[in-house]
Amino acid sequence: MGLFADLLAIAAEESLKILLVAPLATLSIYFFFNIFFHPLSKVPGPWKATISPLWLWYHSYAGDETTSVEALHKIYGPVVRIGPNDVDISDGAALAPIYSEKGGFLKTACYSNFDFDGHPTIFSALNPAHRAVRSKAVVSMFSPASIRKEGDQILRSCVDRLMAHIENEAASGKPVNILNMGRCLALDAVTEYLLGKTYGGIAELEASRSTSDSSSLSASEFVDTFVAVGRFFLLPNWIFHALEWALPKVFPDHKVDESMELVTKFCDQVVAETDLEKDQTYQARLLRAGISKEEAAVQCMDLMFAGTDSTGMNFGAICWHLAQSPSIYQKLKDELASPEASQGDPQTLPYLRGVVREGLRMSMANPTRLPRVVPPNGFSFTTKMPSGETASFEFPGGTWIGCAPFSLHFNEAVFPNPHKFQPERWLEPSEEMLRDAIPFGLGPRQCIARNLASSELFWAVRALGISGVLDGARTTGLMKDGIIVDEWFNSKVPGHAIELIWDSS
Fold this sequence. Notes:
Elements (H helix, E strand, L loop, with lengths): L1 H35 L10 H5 L2 H9 L2 H12 L2 E5 L2 E4 L5 H6 L5 E2 L20 H11 L5 H27 L5 E2 H18 L5 H11 L8 H9 L8 H14 L3 H19 L9 H7 L4 H32 L1 H10 L3 H5 L6 H13 L9 E2 L5 E6 L5 E6 L4 E3 L2 H5 L21 H6 L13 H18 L5 E4 L22 E4 L3
Parallel strand pairs: 2-8
Antiparallel strand pairs: 1-2, 3-5, 4-10, 5-8, 6-7, 9-10
Helix pairs in contact: 7-8, 7-9, 7-20, 8-9, 8-14, 10-12, 10-14, 12-14, 13-14, 14-17, 14-20, 15-20, 17-20
């Protein structure tokens, strides 16, 4: 009996050793393979990135993904392995083959983390055929001709109301959150032009002034909630959905719930009130294409989020830079001083165009990598390394690959003195500048509303120059010396404020 017990004890001890050693051995083999034998093993990068995606997930969550990856580029060159199956390229020559040639590579699975209520949106859809039905129904609304014909008057009206409000707020002697105002402008422009009914963001600003209520836009929490999704963008879908289910239960937020309810109600209402025979609105076109009312409302919500956040950030950044650079603001005003310039198409004015382009380059509204999946036949790319030598890389099918606007927009080789706001650089842009400036993405999956967003900014910057509303403005608050952002897919400004204050005259 004693011998049998001893044998059992030995067996149990050996089983325990196996249970402990087997996982360690498996991990060791996995790490060894990833470092030395993986198809991407010859792509330069830190060992911690080659063995696990945790490094990248952490920096994505922490909001310093782009600066962390850019630091790797300074060490390893323009092609860096940032995950076991993940590559980042900071050479603009990679843009065309990845994003535009032959339709570009397909989006990676993580984009479905941006689905709304289980519905793939025009932005998040992975299946090109699924997206095509929806985008084809509405794309004509975003053409420059349609915007000029149907949208310009709406945009100008929204801009004029906002300028009047900024002027009134400037006289108060208190800090003015120009980011919030940009969001209100963008939200009203998008909803009135595309949905046929204004949300009323600027009206909220006007009402808050009359009641001395400095609260933010009622849709802000809705927008900020989906901005925050960006910190989990790169997670596998199953982990993302688990967090999506758990976090609201662990950290309930009544303000977010109220904001979501307001936006949902607004979108449900514009869909319910649609006249399918007469209306030419965004939602009417979707419904006529066979999209359900439920999904049409979701697509409208996605439109409101995307149209509000990025344009609001771009407007806020441009105002900040103009307040920081009175001489640049004066040049803008000088260009708009003649009746011909002030009454013409703002997109034809060279310096104004330079201000908008430079603002889009520097705003970091969407700073992070735009990942794509290498097709089954693989992808070859040749680039110049820091040593000056040329290197060629082979990426097998299934590799996640992409370029980040942050790395391209602040590339000193293409944009000398890249952190300086310098509209003059766009008066005679190089081919590389035009190639690498991708504030709205590139190719068939670039932002569908890019022409509308650009028009909003051109009319707004025109009004800033004509009105002189930024005379005497200076930056203040947390962003006094520089705009700080959490580098998520849609950047987040800490405190949700870019503030200006006006010197009393």
